[in-house]
Each structure stands twice: as structure tokens, then as C-alpha cells.
């Protein structure tokens, strides 16, 4: 996988990514590897069981998001039947700007092929209004939403902490059944994006 160096950073976003990375490193786990299933445990009486990786895998598609442009709620699960691209990003991330310009150059073709492209803001200090202002200013036509903390945690559990390190330009693709069929990091040019999605669209 291509690793893109951090060009810009904000302390809070790096702190979140750092906490996930420290936790992964301290356990001896490879932070980019698929996480192992958590062992079953019986909570003490009256205690609430901690969510497991399996729980995150089952529920992350059902976490409610809001389209920052329309204010309409949706879930990733509600997009089943379409190929869905999920792009974690932050407004402050200059690498994200470059990659989103690549998406814009290919977007007419992706949209025509039925791809639902979702840019998900994972910086907790960026409000929906700020994300929408950014989207309008840069004239991006696809869906933007702010990630609830539950979704950010679930993605980190499923894909590793780098998924929240947005200067690495993460990309996740779901097939029409809502299954993950592609996940990678690094810049993808317009032609590369067309080629990637051609494998999953008719």
C-alpha cells in the first residue's frame, strides 16, 4: 500500500489517531492488519458489555449520518444496492484536497456507473456547517457528512488506526451487498479511480 506523508495536522485529530496507534502497538498488533476477534466475556451483573470487533462490524453500517448539504439523515446500510465509496477526510487536510480534486475529475463517470461517493469528516472539531462550506467552496457534488464518534471508533476497530489518519488518503469501497471489497491508502488519480470502480460496477 502507498503511504502518504502527513503534510498538515491538527493536534486533536492526531491525538485521536495516536491513541488508536499506541493501543495497537502496545498489544504487539500490526495496526494495519485486520483486528482479531475479541474473546467472549460475561459481564458482571449490572455491568454493560464493551462492544467487540464483531459488534462494530455488524453495526457500523447502521450508524446514522447526516448529509451536510440537505440535512437528510441516512445510513451506509440504506445505500445497499449501490457500490459505495467511503472517504474519511478533514477540511484541514491538504492531501484530502488533492485527492478530492481527483475524485471531482472522475466523478461524472463514477456517478454514471452508479457509485455513491461519501466523504466522511472524521475531525471532531469540524462542524457540519464548516464541512458544507468547504464542499460548496470547492464545488464538490457528492455527499459529505460528519462522522459520529461511534462510526470513527468502529472504522478504527475494523480497518486499523490509520483509517483516521486522513493525510494517508484512505478509501473504502462497499459492493452492492454492503460488503467491503476494497480498502487502501494513497493518492488515486482520476484514471486510477475509474479503473478501481470498474471492477465493482457493471
Write up this protein:
The protein is of the alpha/beta class and 202 residues long. It has a domain at 61-198: 3-Layer(aba) Sandwich (Glutaredoxin), CATH 3.40.30.10. Helices cover 36% and strands 16% of the residues. The protein is built from 6 helices and 7 strands; from the N terminus they run H-H-E-E-E-H-E-H-E-H-E-E-H. The strands form 2 sheets. The chain has a 5-stranded mixed β-sheet. It has a two-stranded antiparallel sheet with strand order 1-2. A hairpin with a 5-residue loop joins strand 6 and strand 7 (180-185). Helix 2 (53-59) packs across helix 5 and helix 3 (94-112) packs across helix 6 (190-198). The longest helix has 19 residues, at 94-112. The two termini are 26 Å apart. The model is unreliable at 1-55 (pLDDT under 50).
What is the strand tally?
Answer: 7
Rounded mean pLDDT score: 80
In one word, what is the shape?
A: globular
Radius of gyration: 17 Å
At the first level of CATH, the class of the domain at 61-198 is: Alpha Beta
CATH topology of the domain at 61-198: Glutaredoxin
N-to-C order of helices and strands: HHEEEHEHEHEEH
Give a short synopsis of this structure:
This protein is of the alpha/beta class and 202 residues long. It has six helices and seven strands.
Task: Supply database-style keywords.
about 35% helix; two-stranded antiparallel sheet; disordered N terminus; single chain; five-stranded mixed β-sheet; alpha/beta; about 200 residues; 7 strands; Glutaredoxin
